[in-house]
Write a structure and sequence with these properties.
Strand content: under 5%
Number of domains: 1
Order of helices and strands: HHHHEHHHHHHHEHEHHEEEHHHHH
Subcellular location: Cell outer membrane
Shape: globular
Pfam families: SusD-like_3, SusD_RagB
Helix content: 40-55%
Number of strands: 6
CATH class: Mainly Alpha
Family: Belongs to the SusD family.
GO cellular component, one term: cell outer membrane
Organism: Chitinophaga niastensis
Length: about 475
């Protein structure tokens, strides 16, 4: 897809979502091959291009499905059906991820790579268009949004296609990561650009710098789009993955201390109501524009409801449900017995409507980051780990834990965030095996570089175990 088509896609996203920009819509004749330098002329044009980048993030290959579902399946496997979540659907590509037998031509793995770099190329195009934007405040915001999107996807890619960061903040991490792409291209196929893989350290450093820059540029309030606190939260997530607990703590505390967000009293609210006080950043969807079509969308994979909503491909094990406190509303309402496609199977109740937004960063995550880092560092920044845990756990009906240990906090992350795309990343950063016992640094615990990319770019080295 060239830049012209990106702009057309951005315009379609505007029509479908009803999102308005600051000025007139970009008018393009789809029959003409219009160069980006000709098409992008006004503040409104760049704003619409940015909206198009968000539309790519919503794609089923990214946060519409795969960046949330695949990390959950990767944490499990066939022998883990009594311990966590699992796959009972008919599609082979997710089953390969769950079973750790991933083909280099796996369609889901390929889509994640390709669509991530499409969004990154869009971000780079936005950054290259800053000279067009005349409104200083808009220019600042759009630049911050583009940096945020680029950093976010670089981070997602390196966690999936590169081995886990090791050695703490000072670790060398020279193992292969993914290509860092910072220049806009009229051809979004990264393979055709002949990039090499950067090291894991280089990718992390690039993402960190982009997020630091984004924090200084993004507004505190930016409805439906990335804001300053979303960038701070993702940067805290990056630092936590590195084991840089001091920096993760500082950022988590800043987000919490801003008092701009508050936990919902009902644990289901953030998954039933759009843009609640608990949500720091969400992927925006509606009934007309969402990732849930014939074979895609989180509700399609997760839901198991009467009336044909959901295929119930993704299930929750009885063994996992049993680990919740009997009075924990998360185990009693966000895990339910299905009555739809697979009656009797337990299902995750977080994604039950095609048009509902997808929360990517929630305040509860930041409370748990602060609690974990304070325990690890022996500090009391912001509040005690006990009080932070009580903030998250206290609204669930579960028994209080007056003096929490590190394991209590880690377990609480599982209870709070299950099904949302954290599982394998947490296991890796904690150096823990999958629920089926596969070591975090096993060769099968990184995705293969898609074969179609290697076929056209000999500079891309394949991961060990996939040659």
């Amino acid at each position: 897809m060239n830049i012209k088509n990106y702009i057309n896609a951005a315009m379609m996203a505007l029509v479908l979502t009803g999102v308005s920009s600051c000025g007139k819509k970009l008018e393009l004749d789809p029959k003409q091959n219009i160069d980006a330098s000709t098409a992008i002329k006004t503040d409104s044009d760049v704003d619409q291009l940015t909206i198009g980048a968000y539309a790519v993030l919503e794609d089923p290959a990214l946060y519409g499905t795969m960046l949330i579902m695949l990390p959950e399946l990767y944490a499990t496997d066939k022998s883990a059906s009594a311990k966590y979540l699992g796959w009972v659907g008919s599609f082979d590509t997710p089953r390969e991820v769950a079973n750790k037998k991933i083909s280099t031509i796996n369609g889901d793995i390929t889509r994640v790579w390709v669509q991530s770099y499409r969004a990154i190329n869009l971000a780079n195009t936005i950054l290259a268009s800053m000279g067009v934007v005349k409104d200083p405040a808009l220019q600042k915001s759009l630049k911050g949004e583009a940096l945020f999107i680029r950093a976010l996807l670089q981070f997602e890619l390196v966690r999936l296609y590169g081995q886990q960061w090791t050695g703490g903040p000072a670790g060398a991490n020279t193992q292969p990561g993914v290509p860092i792409v910072t220049k806009a291209s009229s051809d979004d196929a990264i393979a055709s650009q002949k990039y090499k893989r950067n090291t894991v350290a280089e990718v992390y450093n690039a993402s960190i710098q982009d997020l630091k820059d984004a924090i200084t540029l993004l507004p505190a309030d930016n409805p439906g789009r990335a804001n300053q606190y979303a960038a701070m939260s993702i940067l805290a997530r990056v630092y936590l993955q590195q084991g840089d607990y001091a920096n993760a703590l500082t950022l988590a505390n800043q987000v919490i201390s801003s008092t701009k967000f508050s936990l919902n009293s009902d644990v289901t609210t953030v998954f039933r109501t759009k843009n609640t006080a608990e949500s720091i950043w969400e992927i925006q969807q509606n009934d007309q524009n969402n990732a849930g079509n014939a074979n895609d969308g989180l509700a399609t994979f997760y839901a198991n409801l009467d009336g044909g909503l959901g295929r119930a491909d993704f299930f929750v094990s009885a063994g996992f449900k049993a680990t919740f406190d009997p009075n924990d509303s998360r185990g009693n309402t966000l895990i339910y017995t299905g009555s739809g496609a697979k009656p009797g199977n337990l299902a995750c109740g977080k994604y039950l409507a095609y048009g509902q937004n997808i929360p990517i960063v929630r305040l509860s995550e930041l409370y748990l980051v602060r609690a974990e880092c304070n325990i690890r560092l022996g500090s009391v920044v912001g509040d005690t780990p006990a009080k932070d845990l009580a903030q998250v756990r206290g609204r669930t009906g579960a028994a209080p834990i007056p003096v929490p240990t590190l394991n209590n906090i880690i377990n609480e992350r599982v209870f709070e965030l299950f099904g949302e795309g954290f599982a394998v990343h947490d296991l890796k950063r904690l150096n823990l095996p999958t629920y089926g016992g596969i070591p975090f640094n096993d060769k099968t615990m990184v995705f293969p570089v898609p074969q179609r990319e290697i076929n056209v770019n000999s500079n891309l080295a394949q991961n060990d175990g996939y040659n």
